[in-house]
Structures are given as C-alpha cells and as structure tokens.
Structure prediction request, 185 residues.
Amino acid sequence: MQNSLAGKLLVATPELGDDLFTRSVVFLLQHDEETAEGVVLNKPLDASVDDVLPGWQEGASEPRRIFQGGPVQLDSAIGLAGLPGDVEPPPGLKRLFGAVALVDLDAPQEIVWPQVSALRIFAGYAGWSAEQLADEQARGGWYVVDAEVGDVFDQDPATLWRRVLRRQAGPIGWASTYPVDPALN
Prediction:
C-alpha cells in the first residue's frame, strides 16, 4: 500500500466521543488496502501483567499493568518491546518499526528480557477495515502523527494524549489544550 499508516499514531480528536477511544493514542501495527490494526497506548487496565501472563511482570515497563489494546479479541495478548540498535532480532522478537518489536509471548522470558529496553503487554487490539478508518479520518475523528518509540512504552499514559498533541505544529498542537468537558469552560 502506497500510503500505509503502519508505524504511525492515530490520536483521537477532541470530538471523538466513543468511550474506549476518547482521548486515545493508537499505535498502528498494520495498515493496508483491507485492514488497519493497532493497539491503544494509553488505556491501562486494573490488572497486573502477572494476572494475565504469569512470569512476564518482572520484565514489563512501568506502570506494569496490562493495557486494553482495543475492543477486538480481548482474550488475546500482544507484546511489544523496545529493541535497541539495528541488529538482527533474537528468537522471540520480530522488529516492526525502528526500535519497536513484536514479542512472541510463548518464547521463554529469559531469552527476551536481556535483549529489550522496554516491554508492554496489551489485551486485544483495535481494528478497522481500511475503508472504515478512512471514513473516520474524513469525518475528523483521528489525527495521524509520527510515533516516537517512547510513546509505545510511556510511563504516564494518563497524559500521553495531551503530550503527543502538544508536540505537533499548528492547530493539531492547539488541540492539546481542549478541556475534557467544554461545557465547564
């Protein structure tokens, strides 16, 4: 796909009022002519990593919680890791974009941990047909911005939406000051 958004962030505009996607930051893992899939980076759940994947807690990045990756297949887990350098990934890791790698959660942790600088586990994922995502963008539901590795493993997910917007130029950056409830403004 010539204009693939894979590796970019979808940042919910202030007008997007869907509960899960309100002020969400989604890291797109795949985008082609048929589908778009990613994980929500800023929705930690009230469950530790060990609650879902025993043994992975020790290597997880703060805040060491499972994150709700999206509304699709909540009974499955996706692991993303920071993989520094441009060396060939070891077994159990597949480089996706720059320093971000997909983790095989069936791989032994002792093989994965020494190789990674960060680890985040997501329950489920966000998914759209390519046409559905394009339609949501056209209606003004999402900003598309460049991702930084730190976004994927951010330790303060409650402020990620505002900080990602703040680093953008022009009107998109101004959206970072949009109040949670404009009626109280």
About this structure: Residues 89 and 122 are 21 Å apart (CA to CA). The chain has a mean pLDDT of 91. The chain has one domain: 8-184.
